[in-house]
Design brief:
By secondary structure, this protein is α/β, with parallel strands linked by helices. It folds into three domains: about 5-75, Rossmann fold (3-Layer(aba) Sandwich), CATH 3.40.50; about 80-190, Nucleotidyltransferase, domain 5 (2-Layer Sandwich); about 200-250. The chain is built from eight helices and ten strands. The protein has helices spanning about 10-25, 65-75, 115-125, 140-150, 175-185, 200-215, 220-230, 235-250; strands at about 5, 30, 40-45, 60, 80-90, 95-100, 105-110, 130-140, 160, 190. The strands form two sheets. The protein has a six-stranded mixed beta sheet. Helix 1 (about 10-25) crosses helix 2 (about 65-75) and helix 6 packs across helix 7.
Amino acid sequence: MKLAAIMTKDFRLYHGLVKEMKRAGIRYITLDMGDNVPPYVGLVVTSREEYGMVDFQRKIWVEEPEIGVKKALAYLTGTEKCREIIIGVDPGKSPGIAVICDGKVVEKTRALSPESCLEIIRESMSCREYGRAIIRIGHGDLTNRNRTITALRALNIRMELVDESNTTRLTKNADEDAAVSIAFTEGTEITKDYAIEPTEGELRDIQRRSRMESKGLLTISKELARWVAIGSMSMEEAIEEQRRRNEEKKP
């Protein structure tokens, strides 16, 4: 894979691109505006305002470094255009996500929550031109799975439910690897909405985690645990709210 070249006088954009390219493991060089582009460079990344000043055939302009680096990686790997893009999601509190372009794995990552899958997937798809698109979601972890499905409805893309019984991976990036397996497995089209109804076991587990995270000082109520389970409140917010309620009860 050829190198990327950063060519911009935009200080904020430059330092953002350097940070994100290092994080993504993309080899890059920096060039001053007007420099000749070496033959080992496969793409020049610049700002919208400076795009017309860059004398190189393969170039892109970006505004946000994180999205820009994803777009750069797509160009450097030759996956900026694909006939079919498939997104695999391994549901959970921090879902694994895999992006497949014409049968090639081009991205693996984890989301911070079921709802944050939406922006990650939207960004990955915005970096590419594609024909057909499918999102495949594992059938397990019902509450988080249903939260993911509800969030991803906004993309208006075909979604399939996949039996993930054989997708567990005992690896360092197990959730991401499971998402790859889910992406490569045909599922059943999701044609209805699923209610987000946490089980009693899930609520008890959230209450248990609240005791751990508060260092044994309190246990959040079942009501607050339910708000955490459906994604309407973070654990930190629930603990703070329970602390407030406990204070109010004191004589």
